[in-house]
Amino acid sequence: MTRIGIITCANCTQDANCAAVVCLADLRKRRGFFERYPKDEPLNLVGFISCAGCPTAAAPEKILRRVKAIADFKVHALHLSYCMTAVCPFVHKYEEVIREKFPNLEIVLGTHQPNRSKEEFRRGVKELLCQTLAPPQTMADMIRGNIKTPQE
Ligand code: SF4
Ligand code: SF4
Predict the structure, then answer these.
(1) What is this structure's pTM?
(2) What is the mean predicted confidence (pLDDT) over 133-152?
(3) Beta carbon of 90 within 6 Å of any ligand 2 atom
(4) Cα four-point dihedral sign 48, 83, 21, 33
(5) What is the model's pLDDT at position 150?
(6) Which of 63, 84, 95, 111 to mutate for ligand 2's pocket (most ligand atoms within 8 Å of CB)?
(7) What is the distance in angstroms between the CA of the first residue and the CA of the last residue of the chain?
(8) Would the CB of 7 count as within 6 Å of ligand 2?
(9) If you measure from the C-alpha of residue 36 to the centroid of ligand 1, how many angstroms do you get, rounded to a whole number?
(10) What are the b/e assignments for 62-91, b being 16+ CB within 10 Å?
């Protein structure tokens, strides 16, 4: 059995209200970045947490505290969510400090399979975060293709 954890982007899960349904669907179906595990090997999702928000000077400490909340529970692999890999300018720095602090934890850069290019995804997230609509659209609208991603 492989014990895994997932850490997501707070902009997407908290500000854009993503309930991580696509991450979880692909985990169940062994698609995207979960395809790497043998089909007959049970996957145990031990924990799921968002990052602590966009950083200040305390960024490494903040992300490491979030990771520790999962890593303390005998996790073999930590997936950084697809949204983190697509929108986060700090993702590689985070990867570096996590690897240094938790050398036995396998870091996987991604979760669900991309359903659009990272550039389109970034534009969509920007639209969700900067919108003035009331009620605001959410990540669920973007997943269902109900919002337009503006061309820049
Ligand atoms: S990777 Fe996709 S489904 Fe998962 S939390 Fe981020 S936006 Fe939501
Ligand atoms: S962009 Fe990066 S630091 Fe900011 S909320 Fe998303 S994952 Fe966290």
Answers:
(1) 0.90
(2) 74
(3) yes
(4) negative
(5) 55
(6) 84
(7) 45
(8) no
(9) 18
(10) bbbebbeebbeeebbbbbbbbbbbbbbebb
pLDDT above 50: residue 152? no
Answer whether 82's CB lies under 8 Å from 32's CB: yes
User: Could you tell me the distance, in angstroms and rounded to a whole number, from the CA of residue 112 to the centre of ligand 2?
Assistant: 17
In one letter, which amino acid is 9?
C
Do 73 and 84 form a contact (C-beta atoms < 8 A)?
Answer: no
Give, in words, the CATH class of 2-115: alpha beta
Span 10-63, pLDDT tens digits? 999 999 999 999 999 999 999 999 999 998 999 999 999 999 999 876 678 899
Domain limits, the chain:
2-115
The DSSP output letter for 32 is G
